[in-house]
Design brief:
This protein has 2 helices and 6 strands; from the N terminus they run αββαββββ. The chain has a domain at 27-102: Phosphoribosyl-AMP cyclohydrolase (Ubiquitin-like (UB roll)), CATH 3.10.20.810. The protein is 11% helix and 30% strand. It is globular and about 45 Å long. The chain is mainly beta and 125 residues long.
Length: 125
């Protein structure tokens, strides 16, 4: 866990860069969220073009909820905010990697630091 003071850091992306992102048939791209400093994968969520633009412009993570069909800014309800440090896209442009400073308890709605707290074969339900 990093001790960096959480602040918004907007990122400037060109239209040419944004055009390289490939969205699925539902207009979504998976976004892997990784903690700055530790490299721990915190969560996976989905962004559409507007959520990606909001993330870049505000320096906070914005996602599209597939179940609720609405935008959500991570931590607005829980206080467990994510402060963006970098956004990268993979070689095919079909996956994003968002590096953040995680504020609060963590990224998972269960209260865990990471959504990936269970491993196969570890005897965890």
């Amino acid at each position: 866990m990093t001790t960096e003071t959480p602040t918004a850091t907007p990122i400037t992306a060109t239209d040419d860069e944004l055009a390289l992102v490939r969205y699925d048939d539902h207009g979504l791209v998976p976004a892997i969220v990784q903690e700055a400093g530790t490299g721990q994968v915190l969560m996976l969520a989905y962004m559409n073009e507007d959520a990606l633009r909001r993330t870049l412009e505000t320096g906070r993570t914005w996602f599209w909820s597939r179940s609720r069909q609405e935008y959500w800014c991570k931590g607005e309800t829980s206080g467990d905010r994510q402060w963006v440090r970098d956004v990268a896209y993979d070689c095919d442009g079909d996956t994003l990697l968002v590096t953040v400073v995680q504020e609060g308890r963590g990224a998972c709605h269960t209260g865990e630091r990471s959504c990936f707290y269970r491993s196969f074969g570890a005897g965890q339900p």
